[in-house]
Input
Amino acid sequence: MKIAGDKTDKDWLSLELKIKVDFGNVDLWNQALDFFEDRLNERYIKPAEEIQDNLSALGEGFAITTLLCSLIEALETFYEGKCFKCGPPRSKYDYGNGTSRLIYVNFLTKREPFKAMFSPDLAKDFYNNVRCALLHEAMTRNGWVIRTNSEGLVEEKDGEKRLNRRVFLQEIKNYLKKYRGVVQGSKDRKDAFIRKMKCICDNS
Output
């Protein structure tokens, strides 16, 4: 089963065996992180870029923002090494229904570059009125609007909370660059990465 571009679950399992033999090998971990980047670029980043670069500024901001909102949970669970399970969690690395908000808030308030832009209250507001509203109702709520000309990622002005979807996409890309270095420098993040890749392979 292909899980990242042309790479398959068998390709990952072969690489994982090599990593476990030589856990600190930087080159092997760069190959592992290529799986991560290929998977997310193919399925999320490139489609968002295509929408952004090839359409008019009429309504594509909703499509781009929805793509990115659906990605954040995956980014944080890669960081934490958690796997979604329907029903009650069976281990400390499982999570289920009702826990997405905490995962979202953790990502927006603890991970660079977003933590400088989101307070806990703003992160919860974003989760409820952008993420959930888009994914469940195809709309934003409570004063949130999607723009391309606001200053920074979120600008509160004239009673609106303006989310700049161009900045949002760029900051997600910035996070992906930073994440590679974070994993290379931390055994805990490497262990988490392997857990998440196991989850992906088990469910492919």
Summary: The chain is about 65% helix and 10% strand. The first strand starts at residue 2 and ends at 4.
